User: What shape does this take?
Amino acid sequence: MPRFFLITIVLLFFSPKLSFAANGDSVTIRHIIIENNKRTKDFIIERELTVKENQQIKANKLDSIILANRLQVFNLRIFNDVNFNITNWENDSLDLHIKIYEKWTLFPLPIIKLADRNINEWWKQYKHDFSRIQYGIKFNWPNATGRNDIISFAMSFGLAQMFEVGYLNPAVNKKRNFGYGTFFSYQRSRRIPINTIEDKLSYITLGKDFQYNHFQLKNSFIIRSNIHATHLITGTYSYTSVSDSVLRDNPNYFINSKNFQNYFKIAYHFESDHRDIKAYPTNGWLIQLGASNYGLGFMKDARLTTAYFNMSGYKQWQKHPRFSTAGFGKLSVSFPRKQPYNIQDEKSLGYNQDFVRGYELYVLNGQHYLLFKTEQRFKALDFKMKNFKKLQSKPIMNKSIDYLPLNLIIKAYFDAGYVFDSQFQAKNSLKNKWIFGFGAGIDFVTFNSSVFRIEYSFNRNLENRLYLHFQQAL
Assistant: This one.
């Protein structure tokens, strides 16, 4: 009998299989099986995984590792849903089964675009003048060849016209860590902003002739050093011309008193992305930094150097997972002090998503700025069409539509910003002082990871109104 107990103890402590059963030490991922990817290549999914076949991992970390890998694959943003399942678990080994639901890959869409910075400026300042609308067609083909590449084409008409075509492939080499993109655009317009007066864009009416022409050719190189870190190097050639009327109203439009401007630009961008869901994060963080140089030191038409650093953080409440907190901070600097007016939209506050909520109708041109945003969120609705029983028996064109999400988030927010300016302040008063805005709103996260925001905001002067947006705030 003592010999029996001794043998049993030895087996428990030294047999690999029984040792795993006793203390949950490690498991081996025997096979990784990918299913339902009718278009997407296996290697596009595999390059997002931190686990490989025949790899051993700690058993007590299995759940967290699988969740992290599932989110990483989902963040490719070419799938409506991604499922990870463990199958064939035998002793200390198992298979990892990945099932994906691809999005529709072909999106020819009509273009209804404003000649203004945003819908709020068009509605309030220009009295929703429909003559300022561009119309046309946009053709996006994401995951065109199953390599997470995208072909884009757009053409629009109206007050402002444009033609764009581009291609981006983020994984062209065998290691799948190098990508390339090229983009061409041509724009022309009858009416353009030529100055900023009282912190609002001032336009000139130039008649029926097109008085603004802009040509741009951009080539990008993408280096992905790991699944979280991406480097982007971009080289751009740009040519812009305007009528003599523009220069009479603003001699500093191009800063060189010419009616045309051409320059080469080189830019570098780095990001370290640890967000859980990129379309609308609730956990994790993102760091971005970069710099650009216009003119490369030898072209007199545009000499400008910019740099920026921003960080976003997201935290979901552990005890109440429907609640989350989000924060964002950015610093942008540019040199020299005297700068051409026409490229202020690339490095000033009030353009794209760089604005203080409550100041959507204003622009703050300057050399440097600080921007902070915070949000408190509550997910009121989390819905997928596959959970709606009345639709389960209906014929659907593409089965992946079952997994289209609809999330409704209620939020409160506070933003603050400061623009440092020594060039444009003569006719504007919002620079060189702190501005802030606050309010509440509703975010809809829906088809193709699109975000639609309805917000009611107050600013420092207690101006308040309803604003609409079509991108996430931070």
